[in-house]
Amino acid sequence: MSRILTSIFMIGSIGYIVFRYRYRIINILIGTGWMRRLAVGSIMSVPGIRQKLMSTVFGGPSEG
User: What UniProt keywords apply to this chain's record, in alphabetical order (predicted)?
Assistant: First the structure.
């Protein structure tokens, strides 16, 4: 029982720390070139996001 409570407490603590410092963690991860390339490549491989981003950046027909 004590082991389960300790595990739940640790997971909760780690979750809180990650949530509180999420922007710092993202900046550290994206600060490296290969991680930035991996993140952008992953996001751009999603068809809906890619189409929306390209139309916003390069001025396609607007929706709505």
Answer: Membrane, Transmembrane, Transmembrane helix
0.70 exceeded by the pTM?
A: no
SS3 59: coil
Same domain, 43 and 18: no
Structural tokens at position 2: 């004590």
**Long-range pairs, 51-60, Cβ under 8 A, ≥24:** none
Number of domains comprising the chain:
2
Determine contact, residues 55/61, Cβ cutoff 8 Å.
yes
The series of mean pLDDT values per 10 residues for the chain, 64 residues long, is: 92 95 90 88 86 81 57
- For residues 10 and 22, membership in a common domain is answered with yes
